[in-house]
Amino acid sequence: MRLSTFLLSTVIGLALFPGLTLAKTQSVETATLAGGCFWCTESDMEKLDGVLDVVSGYAGGELKNPTYKQVSSGKTGHIEVVNVRFDTSQVSYEQVLDQFFRHIDPTDNQGSFVDRGPQYRPAIFYHNEQQKQIAERFIKEIDALGVFKKPLKTELIKFDEFWVAEDYHQDYYKRNPLRYKYYRYASGRDQYLDDIFGEQREEQPKTLREWIDEKNKLADIKPYIRPSDEQIRAMLTETQYDVTQNDGTERPFNNAYWDNKQLGIYVDIVSGEPLFSSLDKYKSGTGWPSFTKPLDGSYIVTKPDNSLFYTRTEVRSRFADSHLGHVFEDGPAPTGLRYCMNSAAMRFVPLEDMKQQGYETYLSLFE
């Protein structure tokens, strides 16, 4: 078809069918990653949205078309790797690396969990200079974050050639689910990752990029000091101590602020961190002070709470680590959230006292 005819037919088609859109050209890139046993790495990388396919294989050695037996001997110079093909319109190379690092031990260059030897060490085989630069920068940021507790020892190696592993290694976790689950559990991989990222890391994942951005943001906020345990015990009432230190809950309709209508802000009873504003407070009918959003999200930390028969989202203060309450998704507009807090975990600062007590930053909200 001539170009002019194609363009004319396209214009006519769009005119006749306004909802018709041209298909977006898919841009595919490949990441070659070594994270120990390729059964596990393949399984974890295939969970990432935007990943098209993951193939297990070998890279880094000089022997052509090596076998698993040869590579596992540790004498060929190869490393067990996966080739990850991904759609760059859906997921970036850094996001692929983020998923990769959150499912391996990047600090062990002598092997990976129960699999020992150089053929199981962590590595990134970069395909071009851009991938190399992204990986170098990201590794430095993760190291500075300190989430892995040890320095990263993940090698950056220029990609040369990828050799596909034997058929029985491909999609091993799907073809042999029982053997795979047994191996994975016995390897200690998930136990290690749970210790680093928490047992809810799969259900409520938090990316390394989110951790890094959060840390950078915290560097710009005013820090608050958590007193010693002895000081906290002395300064709090029995109820305040039980709520903030023992994750307790006060009685509804029988607490200081559930019906407070004064203008001002609510701060952490232990550290003074600014938590909520009266401007975001509403009558929820629960008997506890409820808010649609925090005053400053930098001072709020949320985490899964499995203390009941279902999972709730606990709310804690960042610096004092006080238990404040829980947040639910049944609140009013504009957020749809209900931050259900304990009065005993907070101290109310009236609007007229905010400047004197060092909270003048938030006065503009009340103008």
From TrEMBL:
Active site positions, chain numbering: C37
Family under the similarity heading = Belongs to the MsrA Met sulfoxide reductase family.
- Gene Ontology terms, MF aspect: peptide-methionine (R)-S-oxide reductase activity
Enumerate the UniProt keywords alphabetically. Multifunctional enzyme, Oxidoreductase, Signal
Where is the signal peptide, in residue numbers? 1-23
So what does this thing catalyse? [thioredoxin]-disulfide + L-methionine + H2O = L-methionine (S)-S-oxide + [thioredoxin]-dithiol; L-methionyl-[protein] + [thioredoxin]-disulfide + H2O = L-methionyl-(S)-S-oxide-[protein] + [thioredoxin]-dithiol; L-methionyl-[protein] + [thioredoxin]-disulfide + H2O = L-methionyl-(R)-S-oxide-[protein] + [thioredoxin]-dithiol
Q: Which residues form the MsrB domain?
A: 229-351
The UniProt function text for this chain reads: Has an important function as a repair enzyme for proteins that have been inactivated by oxidation. Catalyzes the reversible oxidation-reduction of methionine sulfoxide in proteins to methionine.
* Enzyme class, broadest EC rank: oxidoreductase
The record's section on InterPro entries has: Met_Sox_Rdtase_MsrA_dom, Met_Sox_Rdtase_MsrA_sf, Met_Sox_Rdtase_MsrB_dom, Mss4-like_sf
Species per Swiss-Prot/TrEMBL record: Vibrio olivae
- This entry's Enzyme Commission designation comes to 1.8.4.11
This one is known as: Peptide methionine sulfoxide reductase MsrA
Pfam families given in the database record: PMSR, SelR
